[in-house]
Amino acid sequence: MGDQPNPRSLPSLNRRNVIRSLLFKIPASQQGTTFAPALHFSNHSSDCSSSTSTDYSDKSRKIRSSSHTASSSSPPHVSAQSWAVLDIKSGKLVGGFREQQPREIASLTKIMTCYVVLNVAENYHISLESLVKVSRNAAETCGTSARLKEGEEIQIWDLLHGLMLPSGNDAAVCLAEHFGKIIAKISGIEGKCKEPIKYFVREMNQTAKELGLNSTFFNNPHGMSMPKNKSTATDVCKLAATALENELFQMICCAEYHTCYVVQPSGYSYRTTWWQNTNKLLSEGFVGVKTGVTPMAGPCLCASLKSKGKQVVVVILNSKSIDHRWTDLPRLAHWGLNNL
């Protein structure tokens, strides 16, 4: 790779320092590369609380339950079998259809995965520049992929993009394994942690309770079909509205593409990879958030739209087709803004 250090000339250097030199020798100004200035948290604190639940701000709890709100005009006809439109400022529903019906939500699950990772990292001072090793389990995860390979190392910040842009199930497992171990360590049961993903999913469900998502239950970190992995259009709206308050979350889910460098198993070389966001509405002025589709959930989409100081977040579940998502959601978003 042209600009790499020769490992033979660096016998006294720690391997981690060599890896970091590989990553940061590359100009951050290259097109598509994102090294956010807000990522410099300190290392994981050794005196963390023994509780597995993360403390969330009062600001995150402001989204409250409310009944269907009457609007000045009828909503447009859309193909989605369930939908909801939420006014972010008030936390109230503008409208919905079967909005309280529990359904599979496919990769909209990753909204919670990303939100939990960012909160645990911030609350326990974990640097998003930390490198995570890709396990065989993560690399072999089926479904949509960020194309990660066993033994590679990649920064948490980049993994979050691999999670949200190409909707990588491999990235979801990688993050859940890494942070599941951290959560287990915080709980004082690190030595007994045989299945770290379970600890991470437990944190996802604890967070759902904290946010008042009473019809939501997660069974995995990626949203692949499982009967128990369900939520509602209303709950996903509330989750997305809260997550969008996090500047880093918004930065990630609004990125149209992301380029990063993945350290090879040898530790002395890297490969470049890039991902394009599956959300086509970003080019039309929408804010995030996430696409999703499985045979059971159908095509799903969550996105937000701002106009003249107003903002709504919209969730559609089980649209008629993937292409219908790109017309269903804008219709509801513009209708919602007009009826605030």
From TrEMBL:
Keywords: Cell shape, Cell wall biogenesis/degradation, Hydrolase, Peptidoglycan synthesis, Signal
Domain annotation Peptidase S11 D-alanyl-D-alanine carboxypeptidase A N-terminal: ranges: 71-320
InterPro entries: Beta-lactam/transpept-like (IPR012338), Peptidase_S11 (IPR018044), Peptidase_S11_N (IPR001967)
Stretch list, region Disordered: 43-77
Protein name: Peptidase S11 D-alanyl-D-alanine carboxypeptidase A N-terminal domain-containing protein
Species, as recorded: Blepharisma stoltei
Record lineage: Eukaryota, Sar, Alveolata, Ciliophora, Postciliodesmatophora
Example of a GO biological process term: cell wall organization
Keyword tRNA-binding among record annotations: no
Protein family per UniProt: Belongs to the peptidase S11 family.
Ranges of compositional bias, category Low complexity: 43-55, 66-77
GO function terms (MF aspect): serine-type D-Ala-D-Ala carboxypeptidase activity
One Pfam family, short name: Peptidase_S11
Keyword rRNA-binding: no
